Each structure stands twice: as C-alpha cells, then as structure tokens.
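New to this. Comment on this protein:
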Amino acid sequence: MRGSSNFYFNNFSSSGEQDLLHDLIIESISIYGQDMLYIPREVVNYDKLLGEDDQSKYTKSYQIVTYIDSIDGFSGDGRFISKFGLEIRDQVNLVIAQRVFAEEVGSQTGQSRPNEGDLMFFPLNRKTFIVRFVDKYSMFYQLGTLPTWKLTLELFEYSNEIFDTGIPDIDILQEKFSSNIIDWALLDENGELS
C-alpha cells in the first residue's frame, strides 16, 4: 500500500527505540553540556487569592548536567534603562534530559518536571538564573516520545527570598541584597541585636 508509512520504520510505539533515543540524548548532553546546580523553590506562604508566594525559600541544590542551547550568548532584552533604572534581562535557553532530571532531582523532591520559579546556578560565571518557562509540549515527538525539557531562564533578581543551600556562592545573595531591617540591625559586642 503506497498511502501508509513503512511498517519497519514506523517506531512510534517501540519502547526499545525510544530508550535508545533517550540514551543517545543523555550521552550527547553529558559530552557537550555543563554541570549546573538546580535549586527547587519551596513555597512558604502561598496566597490563594493572588496565586503567588510572597516568601519563597531555597534550601536544597542538586547537580545536573544541562546543554546550553543559546550558542550565541545571552538572549532576551539585555541591558536597558527604564523608568526604574538599569535593568538586566539576560536570558539563556537550556536543555535537560527528562530521565536525568527524574533520577537526579525528581527522585529526591517528588517533582515530575522543572518548575517555573526554580533556580539554576551557573558555576562558570557564578550567576543565578530563575526558570521562567518550561516547554512541556514539543511540536514534534521523535519516535513518539519527548526525551528533554527545554527551559528559558532569566537572570535572577533577589526579592527577600530565604537562601540556606550550604553553598556560599548562592547563599551570599541573601546577605548581599536583603532589605530586611533585622539583617542590617546593629549588633552589640556579644553579637546580639541591640
């Protein structure tokens, strides 16, 4: 029959072919990728009316290998001056293998996928980025499966989140940018608030 696809090459339901594709993608990402730290957001005080959390917390980090999809450098709006002053809106696109995420992060946190609001720390340039968008549905599924998550990240702007990951390069954000009056209060010679 000329109007149908070839039986021998139509592998959309073949789990062996799908596993092979996943393995090849994981190997490619591990060869060409970068080790980064994935920091899941913990919701502290969720407001059901506004649909947001005004006090997020970041206490755990997991090393994960990612492929930087932005080969030309950072994208996004870049640096510009608005009525609020200088803003830096650097974006980067990453690819994470779904199986690697499930093994490294999901098995310990219960997350089935990366979530918007989670952080990624780049040891290469020592910057922290926030996950703005996770492409959950690709237009075309190779062999009937979706082996990767595509993430769009933006440079993180601190707004009184709590950091206690145990990694000094990340936890310094709270010390450096906190506007909490207690963090800036004067201490007496015993190290107590005066």
Notes: The first helix runs from residue 15 to 32. Helices lie at 15-32, 98-109, 168-177. DSSP finds three helices and twelve strands in the chain. The chain has a mean pLDDT of 77.
